[in-house]
Design brief:
Elements lengths: L1 H13 L17 H29 L12 H5 L3 H20 L6 H27 L4 H8 L3 H21 L2 H11 L1
């Protein structure tokens, strides 16, 4: 639980970096999805997903943890809400894949799993939600999201390298699984 709370705090700390708003989309570019990817890759499915549930609940009740000091139910119900609501699912998916391939993990797998969970899963929820909330055709919302891909791929690579180093130095997932097997 401590690690879940810690990673919720990490995502909040990444919100200190100011959002970059582009004229073609109401959803800002932030560094916080880096934390989502790290939560899943470092903590695994259960605790990574839980950490993002904690984060989303804190934001929903008004904690100004999102980039630019944003928070509250209005943000969750706004155009970027689908992206934020997808964060627990993304961390869970990344964590599941990392756990499944734990003994075969390398940087390429970390990056691939971060791309799948941290980009594809988040975009699926975010684009769909944006389309509904903004009354945009899904294709238009998806086209607008293409601008985020280069930055998100960079975040997936950074998270992959960090997760690999943590796996070598202090593998939290392995320790969690060993404790569960012993119980």
């Amino acid at each position: 639980m401590l690690y879940a709370a810690l990673f919720a705090a990490v995502v909040g700390a990444l919100g200190i970096l100011p959002p970059l708003t582009l004229p073609i989309s109401p959803v800002p570019i932030t560094a916080q999805t880096l934390g989502v990817m790290l939560a899943g890759a470092v903590l695994g499915a259960r605790y990574g997903g839980l950490s993002m549930v904690i984060f989303v609940l804190l934001v929903a009740v008004g904690a100004p943890l999102l980039s630019g000091g944003r928070g509250g139910l209005g943000v969750i119900l706004g155009p970027g809400g689908g992206y934020i609501l997808s964060w627990p699912i993304a961390a869970l998916v990344i964590g599941y894949l990392v756990e499944k391939y734990w003994h075969k993990m390398n940087i390429a797998r970390f990056i691939l799993f971060n791309i799948f969970g941290g980009i594809i899963v988040i975009y699926a929820g975010g684009v769909t939600y944006l389309s509904i909330v903004s009354d945009l055709p899904w294709g238009t919302a998806a086209f607008q999201a293409l601008i985020y891909i280069p930055g998100d791929i960079a975040k997936a690579v950074i998270a992959g390298f960090i997760a690999m180093q943590i796996k070598k130095a202090y593998p939290l997932i392995k320790k969690t699984n060993d404790v569960q097997k012993a119980a």
